[in-house]
Automatic annotation (TrEMBL):
InterPro entries: GlrX-like_pln_2, Glutaredoxin. NCBIfam families: GlrX-like_plant. Keywords: Redox-active center. PANTHER family: GLUTAREDOXIN. PROSITE patterns: GLUTAREDOXIN_2 (PS51354). Residues 13-78 form the Glutaredoxin domain. It comes from the Eukaryota. This is Glutaredoxin domain-containing protein. Pfam families: Glutaredoxin (PF00462).
């Protein structure tokens, strides 16, 4: 099992970010405001961050940078900023978070 998959399966919501990424901050802030206690991994601060970036790129179909933010809910890759915000605006994010056990209300 690769490191990204292992980390993504350890919590209901996992976000891979970079410390200098504004969109990463927007996504993690949204999740926090919704009451989600996500596990956040800053790839640029992790000694194995480059390897995890390559794993994420493979999971995203070989798409080039940026690969962050990469949001996993219930161990499944949801996507990045556009996908998370689209789900939120469509009213689909909260039910997804509840189903994963990330929200209790």
């Amino acid at each position: 099992m690769d490191r990204v998959t292992k980390l993504a399966s350890e919590r209901a919501v996992v976000v891979f970010t970079a410390s200098n990424c504004g969109m990463c901050h927007a996504v993690t802030s949204l999740l926090g405001e919704l009451g989600v206690n996500a596990a956040v991994y800053e790839l640029d601060k992790d000694p194995r961050g480059r390897d995890m970036e390559r794993e994420l790129a493979r999971k995203l179909g070989g798409r080039g940078p940026p690969v962050v933010p990469a949001v996993f809910i219930g161990g499944n890759l949801v996507g990045g900023t556009n996908r998370v915000m689209s789900l939120h605006l469509a009213g689909e994010l909260v039910p997804m978070l509840k189903n994963a056990g990330a929200l209790w209300l």
